[in-house]
Amino acid sequence: MNFIEELRWRGMLHDAMPGTEEQLNKEMTAAYIGFDPTAKSLHIGNLATVMLLKHFQLSGHKPFALVGGATGMVGDPSGKSAERQFLSEETLKENQDAIRKQLSKFLDFDCGNNSAEIVNNYDWFKEIGFLQFLREVGKYLTVNYMMSKDSVKNRLQTGISFTEFSYQLLQGYDFYWLYKNKGVRIQMGGSDQWGNITTGTELIRRKESAITSEESNDDATYQAFALTTPLVTKADGTKFGKSEGGNVWLDPTMTSPYAFYQFWLGQHDNDVPRLLRVFTLYSKNEIEEIEKQHAEAPHLRIAQKALGKDVTIRVHGEDQYELAIKAADILFGKGTLETLQSLDENTFTSVFDGVPQTEITKDEWDNCPNILDLISIVTRNEVYPSKGEARRAIQGNGVSINKVKVSDEKSALAELKLLQGKYLLVGKGKKNHIVKVS
Prior knowledge:
The chain is of the alpha/beta class. The chain folds into three domains: 3-229, HUPs (Rossmann fold), CATH 3.40.50; 242-351, Tyrosyl-Transfer RNA Synthetase (Orthogonal Bundle), CATH 1.10.240.10; 357-437, RNA-binding S4 domain (Structural Genomics Hypothetical 15.5 Kd Protein In mrcA-pckA Intergenic Region, Chain A), CATH 3.10.290. 46% of the residues lie in helices and 13% in strands.
């Protein structure tokens, strides 16, 4: 199965310029996708295009990932209603380095002729002055052509700066530079990028036509193509890619592996078939088998678990996936002290996000005589409203500390071990309360 056929059955092909499939079938071809470095991490909204590059490489072609160190200073107006804030060069550099690391989890950078490469457009734009840019790029594209792009037309009523208006020229020149210097023949991206991508193919055509005309070679053809993938939407038509808390990031410090896994686990049955095709490497037969098993027992969420497992392992590794499973067990009452102790702080706080929390000082902790006082007066009666009620709960076998039942109200705190050096998980029947020592 070739690249285009793979995209078709996965529902990942939105549009392709005439001749694109023929070029791909003719020879190993280089293509690129650009990534915006205005955040220090990619998010799952970027994953569809990352998987596009992954399938491209698996089909025997050579992928380039362009990190927009220069264009990130400007900001793409596509799909935006307001101008972005500028970031410092230092921040952009840090973000670029982080994105490079994340892309390396998907692409093979050491596999011979079709090894992936990462490029940064700042490397060529830093050498180009304004006057040179006007001569090299500006003279080949008319204002009328640029105004016809949806990314510009949609902003005319509210206003668009010259900076953002010029963005398509920068992206177009990226394609031209890669075409000339790296042999790249295709730019790929989300369907909202079609206008910017075709600016690149048009710039290549016009610049190369001008050069050819000067050299009197009328038979030359300019093989530059465009291919886009659909924006991923839910079954109800709304945009896919965000949780209630906003973007779901690939960086584990921004979205914990547990929360990342839970995001996929929480997807609606109607959305999972498409998500399995776009975001995993399961084969067609494997996906059909997953869907069959899921249909037989939807309550087991077999499809969601298969989806979450594949993506979480690829982004965070198998160890973090296993930890996410353990964390889920804790939340639903199946965990042990050992499981709790195995969680890092980021995962712990993610699992118990929204659980009531009381903070006490180190002095209060050191001077507290026993567990009874800790869960009543020392925590300002926020865990239990009175010492008497706390005592009755302990006597009724209704209190646990870090998943271990409390049987003696006078147990000293020296017998307890703080999780991550600062937390205690107090179990109150089916409810939890966090005590944080700071």
